[in-house]
Amino acid sequence: MQTWVDNHILKQETGDSTASIFASATPMRVENYISDITILLWGGAGSTFIFMPLIIPFVNLVNFLLLEKELKIKEAMKIMGLTDAAYFIVFLLQYFFVFIMLSLLLCLIMKVSLLKKS
């Protein structure tokens, strides 16, 4: 159907009644499949190895928040002159760098072990 429409448009645009498009399928060369044992070794546990290092900072964050609530550290520092903006910027930067380092470490580990051929 598409070839018929394309041929009709081609004949109409060029003014040549003998112009036509011929569609054909040709095979595409692909590399042979290489069996990789890494996937079998990692199996379904791969997501666990990715998830567990990222949960450690989360546990530390919850621990810090509970400790801060218990000891009222933020209020004491506000009394000493700390602004809310400075407190939260330092807090965000700390966890930003922790997660960046963890992400780079996970990428390196996966590149070396799991994603050798990519």
Nutshell version of this structure?
This protein has five helices and no strands.
The helix fraction, in percent, is: 55-70%
Give the strand tally. 0
Compute the average pLDDT: 84
Q: Helical region count?
A: 5
- Poorly predicted sequence stretches spanning 5 or more consecutive residues: none
Order of helices and strands: HHHHH
Query: Strand fraction band?
Result: under 5%
What value does the Rg take, in angstroms?
30 Å
Shape: elongated
Main sheet overview: none
The chain-level structural class is mainly alpha
Distance between the termini: 40 Å
Task: Please explain how this structure is put together.
The protein has helices at residues 2-14, 37-42, 46-71, 73-79, 84-113. The chain is mainly alpha-helical. It has a domain at 36-113. Helix 3 runs antiparallel to helix 5 (84-113). It is elongated. The mean pLDDT is 84.
Question: Could you list some keywords that capture this structure?
Answer:
118 residues; mainly alpha; 5 helices; 0% strand; elongated
